[in-house]
From TrEMBL:
Provenance organism: Tanacetum cinerariifolium (Dalmatian daisy)
InterPro entries: Integrase_cat-core, Integrase_H2C2, RNaseH-like_sf, RNaseH_sf
Any one Gene Ontology BP term: DNA integration
Protein name: Reverse transcriptase
Keyword Cytoplasm carried by entry: no
Length: 242
């Protein structure tokens, strides 16, 4: 765009107007042109308007850089095996609905700067997640406004020294074990905090709360009585209705 005084021969894009007339086009196109402030003038001579394309400089930069990138050429050569990639009518490579960005550090830095505050991702390149994480880590604004979404935890409290065995216990689950012949894949560890004696109960990690409570009565309460306190890591099974 050039101001009228700076342009000796004013073209269509140099004239700002809210009217588009004299051309039979769709109403949506006319509305879009009016919002852009574009007026198309047709002289008395017979003619027609073929097309008008406006795109950001970064998009043009990406399309030109794709032609010289070896990694993109490798993807294009193996396009039959790459289901998620496609070539459009302009011979531009896309990853699904995102434009593939060549391996150009300057270009990628410009894209990250441009799209820093946008809520969507229009581009894709190999290692994009790593580059975005590094960019955000270097961003001073991101570091200033970083917010913790979890409630602050309190200070650690020292446990009291006990005077009687099996008065207070601690327990936890050991999971990720191979299946046994009885289809057990976890161990429930119950430890007396005073004597450090322990019970190791074979279980399955999908046992219900009611079944765990029944096992606790049979294996722990039956032998040592009901403990006055239980220390755990606040596993959902312990923090629920156990």
């Amino acid at each position: 765009y050039h101001p009228g005084k700076a342009n000796v021969v004013a073209d269509a894009l140099s004239r700002k107007s809210g009217m588009v007339a004299g051309i039979k086009v769709e109403e949506e196109i006319i509305c879009d042109l009016e919002r852009l402030g574009i007026e198309v003038l047709v002289s008395r001579q017979q003619g027609y308007w073929a097309s008008l394309r406006i795109e950001p400089d970064l998009i043009s930069w990406i399309k030109e850089a794709q032609k010289e990138d070896s990694e993109i050429w490798t993807i294009v050569k193996n396009l039959d095996k790459q289901v998620e990639f496609r070539i459009d009518d302009d011979n531009v490579l896309w990853q699904d609905t995102r434009l593939v960005v060549p391996n150009d550090a300057t270009l990628r830095e410009a894209l990250l700067t441009e799209a820093h505050s946008l809520p969507f991702s229009y581009f894709w390149w190999s290692g994009m997640k790593r580059d975005v994480a590094m960019f955000v880590a270097r961003c001073l604004i991101c570091q200033h406004v970083k917010i913790e979404h979890q409630q602050a935890s309190g200070l650690l409290q020292q446990l009291d020294i006990l005077v009687w065995k099996w008065d207070e216990i601690s327990m936890d689950f050991v999971t990720g074990l191979p299946l046994t012949q009885r289809r057990h894949d976890a161990i429930w560890v119950v430890v007396d905090r005073l004597t450090k004696s322990a019970h190791f109960l074979p279980i399955r990690k999908d046992y219900s709360i009611s079944r765990l409570a029944k096992m606790f009565q049979q294996e722990i309460v039956r032998l040592h009585g009901t403990p006055s306190a239980i220390a755990s890591d606040r596993d959902p099974r312990f923090a629920s209705r156990f």
